[in-house]
Amino acid sequence: MSEVGGTLSPAPNFAYDLCTSRGGEIEDLRLDRWRIALNGSEPVHEPTLSRFFEKFGPAGFNPRR
After folding, report:
1. At what angle do helices 46-56 and 13-21 cross, to 10 degrees?
2. Do residues 33 and 3 touch, judged by C-beta distance below 8 A?
3. Could you tell me which residues come within 8 angstroms of residue 4 by beta carbon, excluding any fewer than 6 positions away?
4. Which is more confident, 63 or 45?
């Protein structure tokens, strides 16, 4: 998303959860252009969403877009 300036990204819930559990630096991420985060093929879990927003908010991810 950061490198190519993507604005849409689909993934199942487990992928978003995996992103929150992986280590690594987020200082170089630029997610402010991300407009649509799709979740498919399994239920959306509120704890996963909360962790994702908390971790990637500093990189510009805005859950209200």
Report:
1. 40
2. no
3. none
4. 45
